[in-house]
Amino acid sequence: MQLTFYAQGSAIEPYTITVTLSDSKLSMTCTCPAGGFKAICKHRLALIAGDPDGLFAGDPDMPVFQSWLEGSNIQSAYHALQRCEDSLSDAKKRLAAAKQRLATAITG
Ligand SMILES: [Zn+2]
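Above: the input record for the complex with zinc ion. Below: its predicted structure, written as tokens.
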């Protein structure tokens, strides 16, 4: 089974995102320059993230994609990525606070 989404980028032609569900394994390709097989691009990330920027808003295949995503290896990998980004964000806040504390200590 396959779904096709179109994302308008900087090029004249929209990029094509193809989602394939085969033997309960989900895969996604994108025709954008960054969309190489082993890389993730913002178009596929936007789809996985539930289209927060409205790039695919109103696409009738979104609910189908969401149902395919549910429980998939892509969804669990995305959640792992989110946890890393949350940890990184917390670490950056602690780093900024530590730098401020040192700056305050240095200047007396
Ligand atoms: Zn892309």
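Notes for the reader.
Residues 2-107 form one domain.
The CA atoms of residues 33 and 58 lie 25 Å apart.
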